[in-house]
């Protein structure tokens, strides 16, 4: 019985953001680290560029959520494609020089009255140009478009651009909730329980699966402030990072732990092994990741961590060949999370390790990743109708804390012009029941949930 509870708790926490709420407070009560050590100060992270809000009006939820029922149901979309790793034999110094030549990300494209009058036709007419800019800049901020103030218009936009939807890389975990399943639109992390949680930079990627592109849309900005969407160019971060650190991380590689399960240290070894075996066999496969269950990698007695396989922190872009910082450490490193607004229960806390020794990244290395990343963050003032198109192998994204209610949504896309990269896997619809069950449990989370990790 106890094992089942633990396994279920673990089942609720693995996400690409590396966190998620456990369904109850159960996960919190078992997880305090030593209370003798004072927790570090928490400070809101910075951003290199913070554009002003313009306060453009949006539609009411009834209006923006309406789907065009005359269009076909897209819920049988593609699986998220497998990650395209191309990270061997990279000359770090050369890579930094090459990456430094890239233009500032994101490119801003503003709708004129004439553009808006064209509706979806604007995107059909400018498809080639916009897709080319996306590859060149890593992200394109479409500002002031009336079309995308609704799900219906968002779908018309991505269809006009020839983008082909796929599942979230962690769809099978059941943690990703659709905003409009028939339009292939997921809800972003808008839950009131997580509005006080800063989501650091990450690509929508696991070692195993990575979406090719994304379109993030604002339907309603946060009613009481905050909630800026964050984007940063992986090329700019690569160019910015201290070369010695970059070389070290490239040589040693990294591994990411996506969940902590704290067992009582007094639990007999045979029972610990039993839990490990159970989680490994029954829970981990649901996450469609290559995970290894490891005891006490971060030094905490009795802690079982689910750790992804080793990966390089630099990867060449599949289309352009440009080497970029393709890595989720800014979001996942524990030492950074512990120093900023964080609403993750201990069971969902992530960590980043040097792959060769499985030691957590040092504070000094984390601080350099933070500095280089945040210097290149644009903290977008997204208004209703704004869309951020992201090349997910190039630019990283995140979200600042917010107050009040906010409604942003996202669609993921696979390779639309390369069948062999896309693969032939379609959505496995049986997974629905698990998704819905877990999501409905998550809705029970208290508002303004705060974790008690130290
Ligand atoms: Fe994300």
TrEMBL record:
Keywords: Dioxygenase, Oxidoreductase, Signal
Comp. bias regions, Polar residues: 22-34
Region of interest: Disordered: 21-55
SUPFAM superfamilies: Clavaminate synthase-like (SSF51197)
Coiled coil spans: none
MF term (GO), any: dioxygenase activity
Residues in TauD/TfdA-like domain copies: 120-406
Signal peptide: 1-18
Protein name per its UniProtKB record: Taurine catabolism dioxygenase taud tfda
Species per Swiss-Prot/TrEMBL record: Seminavis robusta
